Amino acid sequence: DTQLLCGLSNADSHATHYIYKISFVKIKIDRCYLADTAPSGDTIGAMHIFYAIFSLITFITWGVDKYRARANLWRISERVLLTQALLGGAFGALAGMLVFRHKTRKPLFWVLVGLGCLIHTVILLQF
């Protein structure tokens, strides 16, 4: 299995490790806090930053693929688009589907992107 490290390593007593198994990829997630603070409602954790950046990258990827589809250029593979969605970019993928109207006719994309949103919502609620 492939292991992907997400978040930031933190040696303080607040660090907690979680293992999630998604399909064929194990994702090891470190629970971290900025500036060594305890969790609170106004603290933005490293995982929130990771999801925001990865979702933005995924959104841009979906937009580029839609542009390439219209221009009849070389395309980004569906496997790459779905992998990004399942590894943390589900929110960006959903936004890309709606904003660019990309892959909206394919039920598999709705199911997997929706599943990714559900999984990553549950993970984010832990942080």
Give an account of the 3D structure.
The chain has helices spanning 46-70, 78-100, 107-125, and strands spanning 2-6, 16-22, 25-31. The chain contains three helices and three strands; from the N terminus they run E-E-E-H-H-H. Strand 2 and strand 3 form a beta hairpin. The protein is globular, with a radius of gyration of 16 Å. The protein starts with a strand and ends with a helix. It has 127 residues and is an alpha+beta fold. Helix 1 crosses helix 2 and helix 2 (78-100) crosses helix 3 (107-125).
Principal-axis shape equals globular
List how many beta strands DSSP finds.
3
Class from helix and strand fractions: alpha+beta
Q: Helix-strand pattern, N to C?
A: EEEHHH
Strand content: 5-15%
Number of helices: 3
Span from first to last CA? Answer: 25 Å
Backbone CA Rg: 16 Å
Question: What helical percentage do the residues reach?
Answer: 40-55%
Any low-confidence stretches, pLDDT <50, length ≥5? 1-38
Largest sheet: 3 strands, mixed
SSE blueprint:
Blueprint: E1 2-6, E2 16-22, E3 25-31, H1 46-70, H2 78-100, H3 107-125
Parallel strand pairs: 1-3
Antiparallel strand pairs: 2-3
Helix pairs in contact: 1-2, 2-3
Question: Keywords for this structure?
Answer:
three-stranded mixed sheet; 127 residues; alpha+beta; globular; 3 helices
Summarize the structure.
The chain is α+β, with helices and mostly antiparallel strands and 127 residues long. It has helices spanning 46-70, 78-100, 107-125; strands at 2-6, 16-22, 25-31.
